[in-house]
Amino acid sequence: MAFDSAQKYCDYAPGDPLHAPYHNLEYGFPVADDQVLFERLVMEINQAGLSWGLILKKRPAFRAAFAGFDIARVARFGARERARLMTDEGIIRNRLKIEATIENAKRIQAIQAREASFAAWLAARHPMTKAEWVKLFKREFVFTGGEIVGEFLKSIGFLPGAHTDDCPVGRKLTRSRPKPPWLTKAPDAGW
Question: Whole-structure pTM over 0.85, yes or no?
């Protein structure tokens, strides 16, 4: 299905065999598992400059290439793994994105050592504006510009905008337990 940039994800994802499962079951839903959070961050980093459809198609290859997104294993990747990744046609073979994935695994480990989990680290800083999140992510991680951070946080329910007001999935999320964090924002969060 062709995507018109004026459309919202909720307008074209439903019914699409590639996008519908992600839209209907993952996008905007709260995530508490560090491995899933790492996967989402890696997916968003790799999507930069490319289509989301391409990333979803390559998702199984990314999982295989990056040890199922096992943070500790990826953090230990050395020269041999980097060379293997640069020749893996199933993933995005961009040296900066590969290096960012490995470095960010190390940085998540450091966060886990300080605060028990990446999920706890995120929750402890909620609510913040997108600009505040971007500033924080640029301090803590690599290859995390505004679009990457914004989409990552929308995808895990920390920023609003994942679904349109009339989207059935969005309406389901507003009634869900636990609610996505953006629905529990403080009145002065600036969204």
Answer: yes
